[in-house]
Design a protein that fits this description.
Number of helices: 4
Low-confidence stretches: 1-9
Pfam family, one: Prefoldin
Family: Belongs to the prefoldin subunit alpha family.
Keywords: Coiled coil
Largest sheet: 2 strands, antiparallel
InterPro entries: PFD_alpha_archaea, Prefoldin, Prefoldin_subunit_alpha
Strand order of the largest sheet: 1-2
Protein name: Prefoldin subunit 5
């Protein structure tokens, strides 16, 4: 029995030391379903972080490109996602930065680039954390499934 309890040690620490082998089949199924939901939430968070990081990287690249553009260059300016008007570039001294929840702050180009760099780094760190949490939940899922399969096998034998 000690060999069977060892793989669930990580999950025991998280659940307050409850051995998976002491749970009923129904309790194990509830635990499995709970872990599946948590995994789905973590996967959704991971995808959202990747999308947000990509948007920031695109914004940073657009700002970099705009600073290199000479004054008076003709371009189409987006008014909505499907509506553009003609315009010309002017000397870029500052820009508006979306700092979240609908708030915009005027910053110099250098401050805006530094802000986006910090935000990209923050999201990269959060992505690593979410990925690690998902890996741990995946291990917990495997442990719960292993004990569930052992209980199924024991029920068939008995």
């Amino acid at each position: 029995m000690a060999a069977g309890a060892a793989p669930s040690a990580g999950l025991e620490e998280e659940t307050g030391g409850i051995s998976l082998h002491s749970l009923s089949y129904e309790q194990l199924m509830q635990l499995k379903n709970s872990i599946e939901e948590e995994l789905q939430g973590l996967q959704g968070a991971h995808q959202q972080l990747q999308v947000s990081t990509k948007k920031l990287q695109i914004s940073k690249a657009a700002l970099d490109e705009l600073t290199k553009t000479s004054e008076g260059t003709r371009m189409l300016v987006p008014i909505t996602s499907s509506l553009y008007v003609p315009g010309e570039t002017s000397a870029l001294q500052s820009c508006l930065v979306d700092v979240g929840t609908g708030y915009y702050i005027e910053k110099s180009v250098a401050e805006a680039q530094a802000f986006m760099d910090r935000k990209i780094e923050l999201m990269a760190n959060q992505t690593v954390g979410v990925r690690q949490a998902a890996a741990i939940k995946g291990q917990h899922m495997q442990q719960a499934m292993q004990v569930l399969n052992e209980k199924r096998f024991a029920a068939k034998q008995g």
